[in-house]
Amino acid sequence: IPGAIESISSLLERTRDSYQAAYNIWTLNNLGLLILKRLAQHHDNSSEKIGKIK
Q: Would you say which domain of life the source belongs to (predicted)?
C-alpha cells in the first residue's frame, strides 16, 4: 500500500543522535506497521482507499 506507507513514513524523522532516538524510531515504525495491518484486516478498507490517505 504505497500511499499509506509514504504517509506514515513521512511522520518518522530519522535521527541517530542517541540510543533513545533509535528506539523511538523503531517504536514509531512498529506502530505504523500495526496501523496498516489493522486497516488491511477490515474489509471496508480497500487498498485503493488506504492508498489515497495522506
A: Eukaryota
Residues contacting 35, CB < 8 A, separation 6+: 8
Task: Show contacts of 38-41: CB within 8 Å, 24+ apart.
Answer: 39/4, 40/1
CB 7 within 8 A of CB 54: yes
> Tens of pLDDT along 1-48?
566 666 666 665 555 566 667 777 788 888 888 888 887 777 676 656
pTM of the entire predicted model: 0.47
Domain boundaries, the chain: 2-52
Which residues have a Cβ under 8 Å from the Cβ of 39 and sit 6 or more positions away? Answer: 4, 45, 50
